[in-house]
């Protein structure tokens, strides 16, 4: 796939977070449709809740039976955010408002591609006149059981990545913004028109034509592109800093060299600064007290491992080159 962009698309581009998208992607992670990529501890902790959902709510299995990698998935069950600050309830309302005719069309397209036949109970759900609400109920249950308890930390990770990515696009242009989004994306510079190449099965060329691109960071998901109406042009990509999702390391985990050198909690703060962050963002992400994070940052700064930068009214911390070296895997 080729996505053509122009300098005018920089100003029109937006960034958004999708709590509903995280709920669907969390289900896929548990179902083995996504790789763990450092999220093994989270998967193990939430596995009982996931298994309870599968036992008690057949629509969860029906939802998962629709989802696959490398092919079309019904868009109405995971629409991209519209760029406004919608919470989960607002996004779910969009799903529930899907006209039945649209849902039927998308489900038919989803199910006609070569794949394993869905189980009988799932086919009954797809044929139900309440199919939209049944699948929306499954998404809501996944949000409540799997994502909502960790949402403050998840949101902190996503917001940090969002601010970082927006700054790169505005300061350095498309090449810098796309460079490390995903290995399947490649920036091809041009004169007035540059191209984002996506390594997928779509041979088409799509032009933003001044409408800009919507960037959506994700913790549990992977690369998704939206290029079909009525959705905005959008790219879902894996956020940075996901490895620190669970906060301070489990006391039962064997300590590594950095833990032994600076202490587990201080090492967690240093690792969490893969992207610049404010003190409050680190508190939300790591589950530590405000005073504890502040003390650790003061020591790390005195040791030359982090520095402070002011962005508007907020103060953000980032690792120095020495801090990067110590925090490297």
Automatic annotation (TrEMBL):
Keywords: DNA-binding, Transcription, Transcription regulation. InterPro entries: ArsR-like_HTH, HTH_ArsR_DNA-bd_dom, Metal_resp_trans_reg, WH-like_DNA-bd_sf, WH_DNA-bd_sf. Residues 256-327 form the HTH arsR-type domain. SMART domains: HTH_ARSR. It comes from the Bacteria. Pfam families: HTH_20. The keyword RNA-binding does not apply. This is ArsR family transcriptional regulator. It comes from Micromonospora qiuiae.
